[in-house]
Design a protein that fits this description.
With about 1250 residues, the chain is an alpha/beta fold. The protein is built from 46 helices and 25 strands. The strands form 7 sheets. A 5-stranded parallel beta sheet has the order 2-3-7-1-8, with helices on both faces. The chain has a 5-stranded parallel beta sheet with strand order 10-11-12-9-13, with helices on both faces. The chain has a 4-stranded mixed beta sheet with strand order 16-18-22-17. Helix 14 crosses helix 17 and helix 18 packs across helix 38. It is globular, with a radius of gyration of 37 Å. The chain starts with a helix and ends in a 6-residue tail after the last strand.
Length: about 1250
């Protein structure tokens, strides 16, 4: 009987212990049976996700999953009803919890990445530009004896062999886009069997393969292009941080700084919850294992029953704690989310910085560098815990990630921490501390919190912008500020997205309604075509009619020099400032950059526009052993003096061995490496000047800086400088990893005339001016030297009006190409001047002009018309009138209103620069005031084009979003429908009666047109297949899609038309231009191929050939050799419509415009441009062939003809030269940079 009672008691205890589990197990069994029925579809979805989703962004993954689910359901595959997430069948909560404890960010994208990595059969290849995935991988694989190697390191193969044999894990970090061939067998797992063992071949060695071996590949490249075999043999996983994920991580940083009690409690709650989840899973597994492993009658197994009871008790206790912890976490989250706006602003700022590399390759920023700056901004924000404390402890992303790997506190301690935080007494529990803990301040009141949040938003935004601005070229500062301002306003819903797109794209109506006679008096067709599309926007419907009704008021407003500061006529003056920007861009495109600057200043504050003066000490104080300083070099600027001066203030000089300056060049690799190694161990400062000259050695510098960041002496500092390549903003001069982690300094010298004159004259001294042997020679030396300095300043300042080549939509009004005139040219010319004066009794003006213009400055120049401009300046400046006539001052005007000074003392001439130099304007450079308007218009177009590229271009790692793809598809369909059929060349050539020069040109043009049309058709059809998924998207297809999306001419099409770097037309305008060219060719090649009465010269691919054909035709008719032929151009009074028959001699051409001057129909000669008229049209021009002996430039200006205002092709910028009648001296038009343009991109 006692035995029966014991048995009954034990049975009762067992039933009690398993009672709640019985119901749950029954439900689980039922669920498993249901899952079995849908296993096929669920597993297919999960396998597709693991195999294919890795490389893509979170948005694109969501689209893929939705497409796959829809496809599987359409095919009738059995699937779990309502399934939306493949992770539910790939991983459980305990698995995710364990990853989070190992340091994986807990955002959904990171969890997806972890799931793919764990479940993939192929080796994972992590695309991890922010280094978030690699931290988790290192922590996770540490238990597998992880070995970290680098591609190309001397010991990589040895470490790999040992790890393969021992079955350890290997991580190849920071890979490029190429993989060492010796590793291919390992990556492809090309094993073979010998006896009972597996082997893999590495080079010439056979290595025994342990099945526990695991390989992980890692790259910091955000959008790498690997060959297909690598993509097939590895699983690419995109660990690029998402904006939502980064927002959560920055929220932890902000709260950690502002309310460390809250963040510590939150972290401990995360740790507790993950530990509870893992423990519950372990208990459940142990329970099932004990029951399944029990032998005999389990009702008599007292130890088993007691173990089950203990497990059940612990599980129930944990379940209660989980509920309590989750409730507490909700309360904590509510307090933390009060700071979310600051974290959201931080995430937006980082993604803005991350997109700036589309502007220039130097603009690279790592997440760690950003977090350091962002954390410093929180510390210095007014009203905070560390306000004004620049020495607050820095916070890194790695530290934030590692917080969740800390040891858990007891549950009671965490709950007490949470209670104290919630009631506003956030003291940290520290029972073991002997010293009393100071009472921290209580939580802020709602009013205090509101003020603090505003301060945090303002300070964080400004500090990050200022950090970025220091490394920007001057031309890009307004672009970045505009991007920042608009992004903030868009996020706050303060501006309308449709209006924002209209401002950026500024589309012109292809066929606007006819302009009224009243408006046509002051408004151009271009302005009207830009104004009319605005009427389709909400609230702008009456704009065109209002302008017509108040024509005089709008005319007065448009006639103002600074219209953007004046009130707009009528009710439009009451519109929001942003909406007024749209009208300014349409009617006054030359003032849009000023208007944008004023707008940004009104929104963001004056400190965003007015930059503080460069202070080397402040910037160098921010450097550390892991943060080098990168100085961008400019002509006339070197940072070495600043570095030496600041280093001396810190007791670091070359003499005491604590500072080393190395001018990099051939043979300097060894000394540079020796100094880096020495200072890494002992501490010291090193400056490596001109590292761009050492492209083969820079990777070694990259590796040494990476080592220094981890192991260097705390006093180690590295500074280096490099010069950008003019016209090649995407040139990879400095490795991406160095650029991401360094502080970039762009101390660009001012380009105005007074600043240039100060620097130029300061290159000489009183002693150098007194060197000549006689008083007369000293007078001549000082007079000509002043003119030489003025000449040098003119050449430097003229660049700001555009340097054509490689400047996108920029102007070539200054020079056709960029030249690096420098102080060395000036000082050398000064020495030449001294030598020539000493060697001659009279001043040899011709010799001096030749030496200055053709040898020293001319040595830089590659374009003939740039050379003509420079030598013309010398002819105007270096002449006898620059010298005083006895006691009388010089009569020569160096610029209007600025006479050459009396060559008295050096100090007096310096003072003359400060007091007498006229205000900065194009007139000083010999140009028309419209040149500034042209410059501003060009800058505005470039600005908005860059804004579109940076904010509207497709992202990497997965393709564009749905909206962009829809735009590309619709545009693609439109272009394909309008694309004409190529010419039938067999049929055209069959109609040729005689192959005259004109006929040859027509045939050549038709062949070129066919090549373009066929390439356009092929590439568009290929892109269509790529968008439909029938073809893999190649790099060319991506660039074509991006060009269509941003309305920019794709390089693939542009290469078929010209040798320019970039078309100045938008894609829609360029496409219309191509159709118009086709129409002219179609009419020309019809019938018996008769040359049009008046040829539209801009419509030809090779206008040079046509102009040559004019001379060839005349030479054949008169039996003359071609080499004695030239042509002159006579500008007629006629219009295209009035020409009904061919020219008697030569040919009529039309479609041209002038830049820098206008054609006066009444007097039939060149005249100065009218205000605000940039590209006035030329009437019909007659090209008249003449022989060399008949050709004369007397009374004519030899005017260069360019394709467009860029004035720059890669090979030959000039199309031809025309002769234009002038009553003024040709010098005037040379210095004004007057040219004929085939394309008017401002129309």
């Amino acid at each position: 009987m006692p035995k029966c009672a014991v048995w009954r008691r034990l049975t009762q205890r067992l039933i009690t212990a398993l009672a709640s589990e019985g119901q749950r197990w029954a439900e689980t069994v039922q669920q498993l049976r249901k899952d079995y029925q849908v296993l096929t579809g669920d597993m297919l979805l999960a396998a597709a996700f693991v195999s294919y989703a890795g490389p893509f962004t979170s948005k694109f993954r969501a689209l893929l999953i939705a497409d796959w689910i829809r496809f599987l359901r359409e095919k009738g595959a059995p699937m779990t009803p309502g399934i939306t997430d493949p992770l539910k069948v790939l991983v459980d909560d305990a698995g995710v919890a364990s990853w989070v404890r190992e340091g994986l960010p807990s955002d959904p994208t990171s969890v997806q990445n972890g799931t793919i990595l764990v479940n993939s059969e192929r080796w994972p290849l992590l695309m991890d530009p922010q280094l978030q995935g690699i931290l988790w991988v290192k922590e996770r694989e540490a238990k597998n004896q992880l070995k970290v190697v680098r591609m190309g390191a001397h010991d990589t193969a040895t470490k790999m062999e040992r790890a393969i044999e021992a079955g350890h894990s290997v991580l190849i970090e920071n890979m490029g886009e190429t993989i060492d061939a010796v590793l291919n067998p390992v990556i492809t797992r090309s094993t073979f069997k010998k006896g009972r063992s597996l082997f893999v071949k590495m080079g010439d060695k056979e290595v025994e393969y342990n099945k526990n071996f695991r390989l992980l590949l890692h790259t910091k490249l955000g959008n790498p292009h690997y060959p297909p075999e690598i993509q097939a043999e590895t699983t690419l996983i995109n660990f690029t941080v998402t904006e939502a994920g980064l927002e959560d991580q920055l929220l932890a940083l902000v709260v950690n700084k502002e309310r460390p009690d809250l963040e510590e409690t939150k972290t401990q709650l995360i740790i507790q919850n993950t530990e509870f989840t893992i423990k519950l899973k372990q208990l459940e597994d142990e329970l099932l294992f004990k029951l399944s492993a029990a032998e005999g009658d389990i009702t008599e197994d007292v130890a088993l029953i007691e173990s089950l009871e203990e497990s059940k008790r612990v599980a129930d206790e944990i379940s209660e704690k989980v509920v309590q912890a989750r409730e507490t976490e909700e309360s904590i989250n509510e307090n933390r989310n009060k700071y979310r706006a600051v974290a959201a602003r931080g995430a937006m700022l980082f993604f803005l910085l991350n997109s700036l590399n589309k502007i220039h390759a130097f603009y690279q920023y790592s997440l760690n560098a950003f977090v350091t700056v962002f954390a410093r901004a929180i510390d210095v924000a007014p009203g905070g815990r560390n306000s004004g404390n620049n020495k607050a402890k820095p916070m890194t992303m790695q530290q934030l990630q590692k917080q969740v790997t800390a040891k858990p506190e007891s549950f009671e301690t965490v709950m007490e921490m949470a209670r104290r935080s919630s009631v506003g007494h956030p003291e940290v529990i520290n029972e073991k501390a002997d010293d009393p803990v100071d009472e921290p301040p209580i939580a802020p009141t709602p009013e205090q919190l509101e003020i603090r949040l505003k301060n945090l938003l303002d300070t964080c935004t400004y500090v990050v912008y200022n950090y970025t601005r220091r490394g920007l070229f001057d031309r890009d500062k307004l672009i970045v500020l505009t991007l920042l301002t608009f992004q903030i306003l868009l996020n706050e819903k303060s501006i309308n997205e449709e209006e924002y797109q209209a401002l950026c794209r500024s589309t012109r109506a292809a066929s606007p309604p006819p302009i009224t006679d009243d408006l046509s008096r002051w408004m151009s067709e271009s302005q009207w075509a830009a104004l009319h599309p605005l009427t389709t926007l909400q609230g702008f419907g009456t704009l065109a009619k209002d302008v017509e009704k108040a024509s005089e008021e709008w005319e007065r407003w448009c006639g103002l020099e600074a219209s953007e500061k004046a009130k707009m006529p009528g009710e439009w003056g009451k519109q929001a400032p942003f909406r007024q920007l749209l009208i300014i861009r349409a009617l006054k495109p030359g003032r849009i950059t000023n208007a944008l600057q004023n707008f940004c200043e009104s929104i963001m504050g004056s400190r965003y526009v007015n930059q503080e003066a460069f202070d080397a000490g402040t910037i160098m104080a921010e450097a550390s052993r892991s943060t080098p300083l990168f100085f961008i070099l400019f002509p006339g600027y070197s940072p070495s003096k600043d570095i030496e001066a600041f280093a001396a203030s810190q007791d670091r000089t070359v003499k005491n061995g604590k500072l080393t300056l190395i001018a990099m060049g051939q043979g300097q690799e060894g000394p540079a490496e020796a100094v880096l190694d020495k200072y890494t161990k002992e501490g010291g400062w090193v400056f490596l000047d001109n590292v761009h000259l050492m492209q083969g050695w820079i990777p070694s510098l990259e590796r040494k800086l990476e080592i220094a960041a981890e192991t260097a002496h705390p006093e180690f500092r590295c500074f280096f400088s490099a010069e950008p390549i003019n016209g090649a903003p995407q040139a990879k001069i400095v490795p991406e990893s160095i650029l991401q982690n360094c502080i970039k300094i762009s101390n660009e010298p001012p380009s105005d005339m007074k600043s240039n004159m100060r620097r130029a004259f300061a290159a000489f001294s009183t002693e150098s001016c007194d060197r000549p042997s006689t008083e007369a020679k000293r007078t001549a030396f000082k007079s000509i030297l002043f003119g030489l300095c003025f000449y040098h300043s003119l050449l430097l300042g003229r660049k700001k009006f555009g340097t054509g080549i490689g400047s996108g939509a920029g102007s070539g009004l200054g020079f056709c190409r960029g030249y690096s005139f420098n102080m060395g040219d000036l000082t050398t010319c000064g020495d030449v001047l001294f030598n020539y004066l000493e060697a001659n009794l009279q001043v040899p003006y011709d010799d001096l002009r030749y030496m200055f213009g053709e040898v020293f400055y001319g040595g830089h120049i590659t374009d003939d018309f740039d050379r003509r401009c420079c030598t013309t300046y010398l002819e105007v400046l270096i002449r006898p009138e620059i010298m005083p006539d006895g006691e009388n001052p010089p009569t020569l005007e160096l610029a209007p209103g600025f006479k050459a000074p009396m060559p008295t003392s050096y100090e007096a001439m310096q003072n003359y620069i400060e007091t007498a130099l006229p205000a900065e304007s194009p007139i000083v450079y010999g140009m028309h005031p419209n040149a500034e308007l042209s410059l501003l218009t060009s800058q505005g177009e470039t600005l908005f084009k860059t804004v579109i590229e940076v904010s509207g271009g497709g992202g990497g790692g997965g393709g564009s979003g749905g909206g962009t793809e829809a735009l590309v598809r619709s545009s693609l369909q439109n272009f394909m429908q309008r694309l004409p059929e190529p010419f039938n060349m067999v049929e055209v050539e069959a109609r040729v009666r005689e192959k005259t020069p004109y006929v040859v040109v027509a045939l050549q043009e038709a062949v070129r047109m066919n090549g373009l049309l066929e390439e356009m058709k092929r590439s568009m059809e290929e892109l269509q297949l790529g968008l439909d998924g029938a073809l893999n998207m190649s790099d060319k297809m991506e660039k074509l899609a991006q060009g269509i999306a941003t309305n920019a001419v794709p390089a693939l099409w542009m290469a078929m038309v010209s040798t320019r770097f970039q078309e100045v037309y938008s894609l829609s305008s360029w496409y219309q231009d191509i159709l118009k060219r086709y129409e002219q060719l179609a009419a020309w090649t019809a019938g018996s191929i008769v040359t049009p009465n008046c040829v539209w010269l801009p419509g030809l691919f090779n206008p040079k050939a046509f102009l040559t054909a004019v001379m060839q035709t005349y030479a054949r008719q008169h039996r003359l050799p071609l080499d004695v032929m030239k042509f002159r151009t006579d500008v007629t009074q006629r219009t295209v419509d009035s020409i009904t028959e061919p020219a008697e001699v030569g040919c009529f051409i039309h479609g041209l415009c002038l830049e820098g001057a206008r054609w006066d129909r009444e007097t039939g000669c060149l005249r100065e441009s009218l205000p605000n008229e940039l590209h006035p049209a030329l009437p019909v021009v007659q090209v008249v062939p003449v022989t060399v002996d008949q050709f004369s430039l007397s009374g004519y200006y030899s005017c260069p003809v360019y394709t467009n205002m860029q004035r720059a092709n890669v090979y030959s910028p000039i199309v031809s030269t025309f002769t234009l009648r002038t009553e003024d001296h040709a010098h005037k038009w040379v210095l004004a940079s007057v040219a004929v343009l085939l394309q008017d991109e401002l129309s």
